[in-house]
Amino acid sequence: MQQQESEETSLVYCESCKIFVNISNLLSHSCFNCTIINNDTNHEVVDKPQQHEEVETVEELLISLVQLRPALWDHLIALKNRSKNIKDDLWVEIFTAMGQIISLEEIKKKWRNLQRQIHKVLSVPPPSVNINPSSLYEGNAACVAIAEILNKLPQRNKAKLEIELLRLVYDTYDQYISDSGCSNC
């Protein structure tokens, strides 16, 4: 294990499981899980009690360290506060906080890959919801026509209109129930 200490955190990089461990939790780390002899009053051999610790991967640590430095990701900050020199200094801070285990270029590469993955996930539109007008709105020609129009719209507009359509259908149904005086409906 390689040790790294900084003013932010004291971390140790575990070579066997490839994660960073807080130095205060080092003995409870899963790689140190072993049998303790004569731990109880009966002098029996017992297993060390299992403790569930949150494991912070390199990516999670990188995200949390970058999140503390908005100049690296927030484009709403003034340019003078996120200049190249400032960003380079912040990347060096992250490099030292991660224990200088991974090279600075590798850290930046991991961050770019994480950003790409996030943007890829966020850019995928939600799955299309196609309404089958004939089965959903039997006997109501207006609803069938509206549903057919909805199926031709882009997904973002369709979701808003579906909500409005359902609200209109429910309001119309409630009005029908109150006007007809139907107590069983």
UniProtKB/TrEMBL annotation:
What range(s) does the MADF domain occupy? 61-151
User: Pfam families, from UniProt?
Assistant: MADF_DNA_bdg
| Classification via InterPro entries | MADF-dom
Descriptive protein name: MADF domain-containing protein
What organism does this protein naturally occur in?
A: Rhamnusium bicolor
